[in-house]
Structure formats: C-alpha cells, structure tokens
Design a protein that fits this description.
Elements: H1 37-40, E1 45-53, E2 65-69, H2 84-89, H3 98-105, E3 109-114, H4 148-156, E4 161-166, H5 172-178, E5 181-184, E6 204-209, H6 212-222, E7 233-237, H7 238-241, H8 246-263, E8 267-270, H9 278-303, H10 310-317, H11 324-344, E9 349-354, H12 365-368, H13 370-386, E10 390-398, E11 401-409, H14 414-421
Parallel strand pairs: 2-3, 2-4, 7-8, 7-9
Antiparallel strand pairs: 1-3, 4-6, 5-6, 5-10, 9-11, 10-11
C-alpha cells in the first residue's frame, strides 16, 4: 500500500445539521439528550461530516444517516481498520464499496466513518489506539465489537443505520449490549467488493438500527430480491438459555414469550437443540478464522508488529503454523454443523436464543477476560459456523444494561426475519 495523507481529524468536524427528510420510520433526528457528533470525539468517529457523503438520489432511505464501519471503502477516504499504522499506509479509495453505494442510491447520507476494534478483531469495543465508544444504554460499559463505532453512533442517535460486518458476533454483540436491532445476513448474500476482511469464510456485511422497520428497509436495499417462506414457528432453545448468567434466564424467557405473543407465532420450547455441539463448533470456527486472519493480514503484521496491540497480534499470528490435520478437522466440523442446523431449523422456523451471556461488561480485565470471551463465542458460533442469517433484537434491560435475543433461521430467510418484526416499533 502506498502512503497517503490521512483523512481529516474528527475533532474539528462541525455538528450535524438536521436531516433533509424525517419520518418515524427512519428516526432521523438526534435526540435532545445526546451529544452532537463533534462532542463524542475520536472514540466514535474517525471521520465525520455534515454529511460526509450525501445521498446520490432520493429513495426509501431518504433522511437516514449512516455510520460506516472503518473497513468499507468510502470514496475519497482511506480504510483505517482500527489501527493508525494501517491508516498511514492505506490508499485513498477511488470508489465506494458495494454496500455504501447501495445505501447512497437508496437516499441515505453517510454521516461518517466510525471506529472498529483493531483489525476488526474483538467483541468488546475497546481499541488500544482510539479508546472505547460510549454505550448510552449502559453508561461506562463496553459497546461491544468489532462494529463498535457504528453501534455506538446509532445508540447515541448520531446515525440511524450502522453499516458493519459480523465475523463471529461483531454486530450481534453490540446490538445486544446497546439494545438495538441488527441483521447478520446469510453468508455471501451481500457482495463484499470494496471492504477489507478478517476471515472470508465468516465475514458478513451486516447492519444495525434502532427500529425493526428501518432494519427491514435496509434489508430490502442491500439484499437481492428473493422470496422467503414467512416465519411461522419459533423454537425456544432452552439449552442455550442455560448458558447465560442465571439472573438473566427468567427475564429472557419472559421477553422471548412476549415477542412470540406480539408476533402471534407459536413458541415451542426444546431442551436439546445444539448446546452440546457449541464447544466443538467454537473451536472449529476459531481454527479456520485464525488461519484466514493470517492469510489476510499476516504479511502486514510481520512488517508492523510493533504497531499492533499484543492481543490482536497474537490472535493473527496464531494461524501461521496451524497443523494441516487440525485445519482439516475444523473444516469438516463446520460441514457437520451446517447439517445439524439445517435439520434443526427448517424453512419457516427460527431458533430463538440469548444474543450474549451477560450484559455489557465494564472496560478492563473483566471485559476482555477469557471466560467472558469463551462464553460469548459459544453463543454466537452456530450462525458463523453455518453461515446462517441472524436477527438480533432487544430482550431485557438488566441492572448492568441491555441483553438481546437472537433468532437464527435457515439460509436465505433473511427477508422473512426482518419482515416479521418490521411492524413492531418497540420491544415488548
């Protein structure tokens, strides 16, 4: 990569003007109780404008403001990947990524480029170089990552749509921690042209909003027009609810039943879904992810090792000398996971589970600890292993903050998931 002048600093950016259009669907105007973009500082935005990029035409997203995760190409700006050394060497992008271009053509404005966890690796939202974006739903606690900046911007009311990616929970975890709606679509359904990846077998363009109706509109814009069988049955995965903090189990059960009642869709408890497989699936996802992270970023890491935080450097380097037989086992395990989940979740069905095992942790060792990471990865790994779509929605608001619910469906059921919830503006 050739060295280029970094994009303008966020600190000097003016506050946003009100959007040109506004409706209850887009919830476009910032709330009175949140700061303007310039006041949130560099913990949320790497680059911010008024707008940064205006919509190219009127459309179904007119009046909506987008926070773009710093892995997508925005014409005229470099991709920063949550690391200053990467940014210094990154070229200025000549064109928008596929997803950014589609949103602009649908009428949305790009407010700014929002931070990601370093190299888009992490689930906490803590970035050694840029700090931690705020979580207004749980002040003083982590927003979740690696789509931390877009999630924070949406939660703060500074953007209406967060454009992110989800490799192994990178959008689902922030949605849970911040009390938001998100969709991780079927793997490969959204073209990834113009974005920098982490692990291609799992990387999935994703989006996050404050309302299900806007989530559905973004889905209509970004996904191909394919018919999907409506969601007519929900499976309550009781063995997955057993994996959350005990104080959350009953409230999350109640929230699941409340959503099912609101949707008028049968909710069928099932004791043995896939919990018995999760440790193995999580390990397999980790092995393949490590190998692909090294393939994607290994040469850059070798040249910039001192510029990368130790934890991220170690994670990337772990894939360098992976034994071939271990990788073969992992890929075979993922193939078996797809078979198990296809039998468990037929078309027209969604599996309801907790999105995260706890509410957002505070910054520090507790938030970055191995125990929480392991517990979180186990809950999110099934969809990553099988490339399934996942809708995450608000569940409960614990004393520590929100905890979401996730619905997994069969591949290609993305539109059915968001359409089922679009009429329901608020959580039960």
């Amino acid at each position: 990569m050739s060295a280029q002048q970094p994009s303008p600093a966020v600190a000097d950016a003016p506050p946003l003007a009100p959007p040109r259009h506004h409706s209850d669907d887009t919830a476009g105007a910032p709330r009175d109780d949140v700061p303007a973009p310039g006041e949130t500082g560099a913990s949320v935005w790497r680059v911010v404008g008024d707008p940064l990029v205006a919509a190219t035409r009127e459309g179904v997203l007119s009046g909506s403001r987008v926070a773009v995760k710093d892995v997508f190409a925005v014409a005229g700006h470099a991709i920063g990947m949550g690391n200053p050394a990467w940014l210094r060497g990154a070229p200025i992008e000549p064109a928008h990524s596929t997803a950014v271009r589609a949103l602009l053509r649908a009428g949305a404005d790009v407010t700014g480029i929002a931070h990601t966890d370093e190299l888009a690796y992490g689930l906490s939202g803590l970035n050694t170089h840029y700090g931690m974006p705020p979580n207004p739903a749980a002040p003083g606690r982590a927003p979740g990552g690696s789509s931390s900046g877009p999630a924070s911007a949406v939660a703060l009311g500074l953007a209406d749509i967060g454009l992110g990616t989800d490799t192994a929970g990178s959008t689902r975890v922030p949605a849970s921690y911040c009390g938001l709606y998100s969709l991780r679509p079927t793997h490969g359904l959204v073209p990834d042209a113009g974005q920098t990846g982490l692990a291609p077998s799992f990387d999935t363009t994703s989006w996050i909003t404050r309302t299900p109706r806007l989530l559905d509109r973004v889905t209509d814009v970004l996904l191909p027009q394919r018919p999907a069988q409506p969601i007519e049955r929900l499976i309550l995965a009781t063995d997955l609810f057993d994996l959350v903090d005990p104080s959350l189990r009953l409230p999350l059960y109640d929230a699941a039943h409340a959503w099912a009642d609101r949707l008028a869709v049968p909710l069928q408890p099932r004791e043995n879904t896939c919990a018995a497989h999760l440790e193995e699936w999580a390990e397999a996802v980790g092995v393949v992810q490590a190998v692909e992270m090294w393939q994607v970023h290994g040469s850059w890491l070798q040249a910039h090792h001192e510029a990368v935080s130790p934890g991220v450097a170690h994670a990337v380097a772990a894939g360098e000398d992976m034994p071939a037989e271990y990788l073969a086992w992992a890929r075979d395990t993922l193939s078996q996971a797809r078979i198990v989940l296809a039998e468990l979740i037929p078309p027209g069905t969604a599996l309801m589970q907790p999105a995260t095992p706890t509410a957002a942790p505070p910054p520090g060792p507790a938030g970055a600890g191995l125990a929480l990471l392991t517990a979180t990865v186990r809950l999110v790994c099934a969809a990553s292993a099988a490339g399934l779509p996942v809708l995450t929605l608000p569940g409960v608001r614990s004393p520590a903050g929100p905890v979401g619910l996730s619905l997994l469906a069969t591949a290609g059921s993305d539109r059915a998931l968001t359409a089922a919830f679009a009429p329901h503006v608020d959580a039960p």
